[in-house]
Amino acid sequence: MSLVRSYTEPESRMKDSPSTTSLQLHENRALSPKQVGKNGSDEKQHLLDSDYQSGETSVYMEEESAFYKSWEDPLIERKLDHPLSNSETLVHLLKGNIGTGILAMPDAFRNAGWIVGLFGTLFMGAICTHCMHIMVGVAHHLCKNCGGSALSFADVMERSFEKGPKWIQKYSIAARTMTNIFLCITQIGFCCVYFVFVAANLQEVVKHYFFDIDFFWFLTFLLVPLVLLNWIRNLKFLTPFSILASLLMIAGLVIIFGYLLHDVPSINSIKEIGNPQSLALFFGTAVYAFEGIGVVLPLENNMRTPLDFGGWNGVLNTGMVFTTCLYTAVGFFGYLKYGNACDLGSVTLYLPPNDLLAQMVRLMMAIAIFFSFPLQFYVPFNIIWPPLKSKLTRDKCDDTSESLIAEYTTRTLLIFCTFLLAIAVPNLGAVITLVGSFSSSALALIFPPMVEMLAYYPDKWGPYKYILWKDVLIIIFGFIGFFFGTYSAVLNIMNLEESSST
Is the pTM of the predicted complex or chain greater than 0.85? Predict the structure, then answer.
């Protein structure tokens, strides 16, 4: 039997929708000898599955058309049970970036001063977006050169080390492990911040209209609902919750801007440039705010049309330009409105407590962040669960009772860990700066340029090796922020604990 099927459909049939074309390509693509032996078995692409899913490139004849060559693209070979559309991906991307970080931007501007804050936020947004493009581009490059159709963050890190100089190749497994550790720390830190944010805003509402309850009990009341929400196993089924959270977030931000732009004081009332230690705290908050680096590859891996993710007008740039502009506006006008009072970690806590509209905003934002929690939780769970599953269960199937009980138990225990962390450090602003400086800076600013240098080693760095020098500068910037930001954040937490004890 011939390994290449003939294609006899009229040319007009090739101009169908992307999903139809993708199905035709899967049905009619050229097969390699290795693929023939797969017996048509399908593989699921789970979000941030740490197990690499292999895919084989197709053999092709010398005089095939460009249409046949497109079948060799590993992006087309993805087989997804629940693919995301472009609009669904954009919604998840916005929710992955626009969270508690945007509400902490006035605090960031307070630490930096309005001049440094304004240009620093725009610069940070451009750098973080570029690093997201680096991760997607390197992942595509490695898929085409090494095989496979989709790679996780850790996959990209490991394979990049394997393609680097010989002396560094032996550290590829360690690089993968380090990446997964930082991803887990970052995303669990985000979940901890989300926990504290929801509890703090609910406490303000209940305190104003009913009675004062200790912060610990609000965290306890949220524990069971968050556990139940995070039992949802598939990303696509979270889309309605993401849409609801996005609508509440948009409505809340519109009302917040109404407060920020009402009776605006003179710009002379705020400082232009902060002191060096405060600048380090600004770095931590700003890097934390651009918190979507961990969900970029998972979202791109689960797209129905992944080629629409990049490009100048792709899903990534569309979402990040909007996000950066929004961060800058909230930070600048929030600091201009409330000045040095912006030290609580969220602009919602500065709104007048006697206004019904302000209390509604607190409630809306709390609900929005509550429903955003599962998207951040998906990342660490899908790193931790696969190795645990092989040790806790004997069945390879995901839907057996034994596997389901083990999975739900693991989800519950991880949520409980975020609960304990929220109790340990209940100050919202302090947690944000520490998470941003320590783990977010590594994932967003250090790892992406590192994998690009190694993946394109030794002769694909461009003219005058501009890719190498560009990546070195980004890594230096990331390390400076990492060390000074973490140091300042730890000192800030210690000072807060001393002041609270006295």
Answer: no
